[in-house]
Amino acid sequence: MLDWQHLLERLVVAAILGSLVGFERERKEWAAGLREHMLVCLGSALFMIVSAYGFTEVLKPSQVILDPSRVAAQVVTGIGFLGAGTILVRGESIRGLTTAASLWAIAAVGLAIGGGMYVAGCFTTVLLLIILALIKPLEKLLYPEKRAFEITLRMHSERMDIPLLERAILSANVTLVQVIMRRCEEIGFHVVEIIVRKPKHTSITAVLNALQAIDGVTMITHRRL
After folding, report:
1. What is the DSSP string of 5-32?
2. For FRET with 190, which of 13, 111, 124, 199 sits at 20 to 30 Å CA-CA?
3. Which sign, positive or negative, has the C-alpha torsion 10, 12, 17, 19?
4. Which domains are seen in the chain, by residue range?
5. Does the global pTM surpass 0.85?
6. Mind listing the pLDDT tens digit for each residue in 70-80?
């Protein structure tokens, strides 16, 4: 049976490692951030501890035999429903896959810590942080044609002309991925969310200027995806 000091140690380490990966997701304002990654890692560690040490009183040689790996396998498959909840599909655009994958990976870290594999859990956490924080800038450098931006407009409902918006975007030499229109909380206005992909040498400023010049646009913001 695991004594309470080692039990507490494993749970705390799991929570800390989960927080490191969760902080990276939180700073980019994804659905699953700091608390979610801490909970997944902590829960996975406890599942592993219960699986390995929670049934010692009922175990009897040649009569009752338990396989701790069975619970670990269920965690691996069961974490999928959380990951699916972070994935958003909008037309041709899919967001949240990386966060879903990080949840799945941090569950594995929790299982490792719960099983007492500190080196494996800590080393995997370091690799996760490298992948999440450092690989994306490298990916953007290697594949500049994949640079995507989300542009949000607020427009007068009566003056809204989606075909005109599309022509303005295409005139700026960018690829239009999708256009989503929804009602604004303020009466008489709509919010239009536009995702575009631009070549390396094309400035996003040209797209913003073309959209700003359209009659009815009262506010425009953008961010890089």
Report:
1. HHHHHHHHHHHHHHHHHHHHHHTTT-SS
2. 199
3. positive
4. 4-142 (no CATH), 145-224 (3.30.70.260)
5. no
6. 777 888 778 87
